[in-house]
Design brief:
heterotrimer, A mainly beta, B alpha/beta, C mainly alpha, A: mainly beta, eight-stranded antiparallel β-sheet, 3 helices, C: mainly alpha, 3 domains, two-stranded antiparallel ribbon, 4 strands, 54% helix
Chain lengths: 200, 378, 483
């Protein structure tokens, strides 16, 4: 018996890995790319499921596995800071206000202290965040991680993912609390949401 | 005799914009925009666009083929790091030319880059580049924006440069200071100080220098009628002799940057995307088989990635040479069955309205260069 | 432009100007001064101290560090158990332990600014550029050895010896891909014929050795010559800094990384290059390099390049012949050749625009200001108001000697450095230096040290603020050069 099991396992494991055949019609599965003596134009058509998963905006996030706290409607203040991993020093990067509507986060007026090309528009137009049932912020957003000094060239924002850790403080049924996220080898990012008021 | 050689801007990508019209005169100038993404080191066309329908593929280089290719059709796949480009292909605003190269077979980076940028098959014979010469024929000589003018953008005429500095704690010079220096120095250097003064007077907002920001910035500039007609972005690190891997290796990280650059241009150009063609340019492809260090060595045929609204798009165009040993160039490299100069020539013809014969004779010095136009453009 | 700027980095505030500038320059060339540097950017006295022994690394250690760095980096990246933050911490630790190139870069600039042998350093910089190494495949950790030890000491000897040591150095073998080159008929290649792996000759090093380092294309060698030269070079080196290859070195009994010849990888048989027959085996490279070094093409090519770099973009034939003669008479004894260059430079009145980095180092030396941070600042995240990191400054100037670049190196022609970008950066760097580098406040003394002409003094007097005066002096023809 174990031998048969072993053979079956071996057979399954040794099945050739095929490229995902997601092309047009099943009738084409027999087509092979042969050496040719003339120039041929091989038309492209990617299957729609695959197409959806191809690269999009840097703040694209798949929320299908996230339980959004859809009953949450509130207006809050926030500030964003960075903490150096080695020294634990915290520096303020930006602050402002945000609104949560049915669990989805929209940034309102905000400002960054970092200089360069940072502006309120980045969070307002590009951030893609929700509050999930554990009270944590989940999704992606732009994050200006360093200060641009006089004479230095501007830097683009990094795009960071939130929700990989549960929120550090604050209750579940509210957006309030400290949300920490990974940035790079040098710093951790922190967004603290506070003074939330429920709205109907 | 050593000729003038440019040197590389070492970090990240570098950008050169050229082909600005003379101030105020935008009538009768070509509307087209050409972007060349120079990939240094030898881009592996078989990794970027694996020919999945070729039955010899897995045997010849199975370990370097991605485990999750984007199937474009039953014949070709696309590396997943080129997702944005894949979507453009699907939407008919991109195309791939496969098994193609400049007819340069000596596999030296140094010579190879010179040949594909100068457009002259004899290395170091030309001081200008094919794009620079094309701009001159199109009535758009000179002025360029970059730290060092890459060869491809150099015309026969003199060019000047622009690229944002990053020296923390420094203050921009006042006009008085630059004027004093200009008056004091000899002619050549004096002119340069005048340009600095003129540039500072423009008061441009802050600009970032990473790939995507550069591409967006270039795109936005090119969208203007009085903006540059050509952009060249240079990206290195494709020379993966060792440890290339099928996914997540350095080669694929660079391909991912190419993808970012393409998306950046599209964002920056906005409406002008429809007048634009972007093409990659690399000195050679890589060997079909894996070498002793799980990488690949310099090869011959590669793939060209094209994007932009000017294209017919939506296809992989190839005269597939096959992967059997006897079909390979010198029994080791993907053969080139399409002269990539024809692809470059077609782009110049479409964007700048230049005649094919003029391009073949005067820009590529190759009177019998085949015309590839109809495969790419309407 | 005074001689000490043409062939050195100018006079610092403590040096005495010598009437016999030529003699002074030659003595700075011939005697290597102790290695010094600055400890910290923010220290009270800006006095140089001896370069610490713990930051002097031999080749063996460097190659091992390069390998360990890579191995540890991969281990961290591939670990499934570490959190992202832990990975960051470990990566930082890995960097601090193995990335000694940070110290190499500091040593490079500090010696130029604070050392007592600036003229010697100028010639070292010339040869470092001539034998360019780019940062590929981890060479940055051991290329410092080529710069400081091989070239740093090699300029006291003969050109053929220097070329031989440079050619077989792990940094050069790696950079120009010779570590992947294997003779087609070698034992190694034959063994792999059945394994579907790609093994063969790589022409890169052979090509550049002939084209860029020695005879130049004027020698009219053929593609076949290059190919045969590659056959001579095959066998030298294997991938130095990857754990998978360590066993190759062990099996071949190689422990001295300077002498890493693998018989199994070598192409058997004699080789003919440019009409000369070379024997099979290890000694062929030595013989080949000797022939390349003594060739008249090499002598003419390099004499010319030296004159262009130190004298002017279009040197007189007398200058080139003077240098070439001293080369021939001394059989390529570099101290004699360099002395000849200094003697000709002393007579020159033609303009020469200095390299951006040479200019920046001279500015720091002459002004007594601090440009770069010190060895105790490395990895400390020291925040200075001005930029003080070596790599960043070199990159802004367009001359990062540790960058990923083409083997032909930085142009020795002043003309190639004229662009609004380069010039603007000189102004910006001068402004940063004035504001944050604490240069010597006695501007008049600095003007005298720089050998400023009447015209320059007149220029400076037109400025209103101290900062502007400083910038004008920094960007003057005396400090920067001219075309």
């Amino acid at each position: 018996m174990p031998l048969i099991f072993l053979i079956m396992v071996l057979l399954i494991v040794n099945l050739p890995v095929e490229a995902r055949d997601s092309s047009n019609a099943k009738t084409e599965t027999n087509k092979k790319l042969k050496k040719s003596d003339k120039i041929i134009s091989y038309g492209v058509k990617i299957n729609s499921e695959l197409l959806d998963s191809l690269k999009r905006a840097p703040t694209f996030f798949d929320f299908s596995d996230v339980e959004i706290l859809t009953t949450l409607n509130m207006k809050c203040f926030f500030n964003i800071s960075r903490q150096a991993i080695e020294t634990l020093r915290i520096e303020m990067l930006g602050r402002g206000a945000l609104q949560v509507t049915d669990g989805r986060v929209n940034f309102l007026e905000n400002s960054w202290r970092t200089g360069g090309i940072s502006s309120p528009l980045f969070l307002q137009t590009e951030a893609n965040l929700v509050i999930e049932t554990s009270g944590s912020l989940v999704g992606r957003m732009p994050y200006f991680h360093s200060f641009i000094n006089d004479g230095e060239v501007a830097k683009p924002p990094k795009y960071v993912t939130l929700g990989e850790n549960k929120k550090k403080s604050g209750n579940k049924k509210t957006a309030e609390g400290l949300h920490v996220f990974f940035v790079d080898n040098w710093q951790r990012g922190r967004i603290k949401i506070r003074a939330c008021k429920n709205i109907n | 005799m050593l000729s003038r050689r440019n040197f590389l801007w070492s970090s990240g990508a570098s950008l050169a914009l050229s082909g600005f019209p003379v101030h105020g005169w935008t009538k009768e100038l070509p509307r087209g925009r050409v972007v060349v993404i120079v990939l240094e080191g030898g881009m592996d066309g078989l990794a970027a666009v694996p020919p999945l329908g070729d039955t010899d593929l897995h045997q010849m280089r199975g370990e370097l083929i991605t485990s999750a290719p984007i199937a474009l059709n039953p014949f070709f796949g696309l590396h997943p790091s080129l997702g944005g480009f894949g979507r453009m292909l699907h939407n008919g605003e991109a195309a791939i030319v496969h098994a193609t190269a400049f007819p340069y077979t000596k596999r030296s980076h140094f010579e190879g880059q010179n040949v594909v940028q100068s457009g002259n098959m004899v290395p170091f014979a030309s001081k200008s580049g094919w794009l620079g010469r094309a701009l001159e024929f199109a009535g758009l000589p000179g002025r360029a924006l970059s730290m060092d003018m890459p060869l491809i953008s150099r015309g026969e005429a003199d060019v000047d440069n622009y690229y944002p500095a990053s020296i923390r704690g420094s203050t921009k010079p006042s006009a008085t200071l630059t004027n004093l220096l200009s008056a004091y120095h000899s002619e050549q250097i004096s002119k340069v100080f005048d340009k600095i003064a003129a540039k500072n007077a423009l008061k441009e907002g802050p600009v970032a220098r990473d790939n995507v920001s550069l591409a967006k910035y270039a795109g936005a500039k090119m969208a203007l009628d009085e903006g540059p007609a050509a952009a060249v972005i240079t990206l290195g690190e494709f020379d993966t002799h060792a440890d290339q891997r099928a996914d997540n290796g350095r080669h694929h990280r660079q391909l991912s940057k190419v993808d970012d650059i393409l998306l950046g241009f599209k964002t920056g150009l906005k409406d002008r995307w429809k007048d634009t063609v972007i093409l990659t340019l690399t000195e050679f492809g890589r060997t079909v088989k894996v070498n002793g260090s799980t990488g690949t060595d310099h090869g011959y045929g590669s793939a060209g990635l094209l994007a932009g609204g000017l294209l017919k798009g939506g296809a992989v165009i190839s005269q597939w040479p096959g992967l059997r040993k006897k079909d390979l160039f010198e029994e080791r490299d993907l053969q080139s069955s399409i002269d990539y100069r024809s692809v470059c020539a077609a782009c110049l013809e479409k964007a700048y309205g230049l005649d094919h014969d003029l391009i073949a004779n005067n820009i590529f010095q190759s009177p019998r260069l085949p015309r590839f136009y109809n495969h790419l453009f309407v | 432009m005074r001689l000490m700027h043409r062939v050195g980095f100018g006079y610092n505030p403590n040096e005495t100007l010598d009437k016999d500038e030529v003699g002074q320059a030659i003595s700075q060339l011939e005697s290597p001064a102790p290695r010094v540097g600055l400890r910290k950017f923010n220290q009270m006295e800006k006095l140089p101290e001896p370069w610490p022994d713990e930051h002097i690394y031999d080749l063996q250690t460097r190659v091992k560090f390069a390998s360990d760095y890579r191995k540890e980096k991969e281990r961290i990246e591939e670990s499934l158990y570490l959190s992202k933050t832990d990975k960051s911490k470990l990566k930082n630790r890995n960097k601090r332990k193995h990335r000694i190139d940070f110290y190499d870069r500091l040593a490079f600039v500090h010696q130029a600014i604070y050392g007592a042998d600036p003229v010697r350093q100028r010639f070292i910089h010339f040869w470092i550029n001539h034998f360019t190494i780019g940062d590929t495949n981890g060479t940055r950790i051991y290329m410092g050895h080529l710069y400081q030890d091989v070239i740093g000491n090699g300029i006291d000897g003969y050109f053929n010896d220097l070329t031989y040591e440079v050619t077989r150095h792990p940094a050069m073998l790696t950079y120009l891909d010779n570590v992947y080159s294997v003779g087609e008929n070698s034992i190694r290649a034959k063994k792999n014929k059945n394994k579907n792996k790609q093994l063969g000759l790589n022409d890169n090093l052979a090509r550049e050795l002939m084209e860029l380092h020695t005879v130049s294309p004027l020698a009219a060698y053929s593609e076949e010559d290059i190919h045969n030269a590659a056959k001579i070079l095959a066998g030298w080196g294997d991938v130095f800094n990857h754990k998978e290859y360590a066993k190759h070195f062990r099996e071949a009994g190689i422990s001295d990384m300077n002498d890493a010849y693998f018989k199994r990888r070598a192409e058997p048989g004699t080789k003919i290059v440019m009409g000369v027959v070379y024997p099979s085996g290890k000694k062929a490279l030595r013989l080949f390099v000797n022939d390349l070094a003594r060739s008249k093409f090499t002598i003419d090519f390099l004499s010319r390049k030296l004159c262009v770099h130190f004298i002017t973009d279009t040197p007189d034939i007398e200058d080139i012949q003077y240098v070439a003669n001293s080369w021939r008479r001394s059989n390529g004894f570099l101290p004699a050749v360099h002395k000849a260059v200094i003697e000709r430079a002393a007579l020159a009145s033609s303009p020469k625009l200095q390299w951006p980095l040479t200019w920046a180092l001279a500015l720091a030396r002459v002004s007594g200001g601090t440009l770069f941070y010190g060895w105790e600042d490395v990895f400390q995240g020291v925040h200075t108001k001005g930029e003080s990191k070596v790599r960043k400054i070199m990159e802004e100037l367009g001359q990062n000697f540790w960058s990923r670049r083409q083997p032909d190196g930085f142009s020795v022609y002043g003309e190639d450095w004229i662009s609004s970008e380069h010039m603007e950066r000189r102004i910006l760097l001068s402004s940063m230096m004035f504001k944050h580098g604490k240069p010597d406040s006695n501007l008049d003394a600095m003007i005298a040290r720089a050998g400023a002409t009447e015209a320059t003094i007149k220029l400076i007097n037109q400025a209103k603020t101290k900062e502007e005066k400083f910038i004008l002096l920094a960007c003057s023809k005396d400090m920067m050069g001219d075309v």
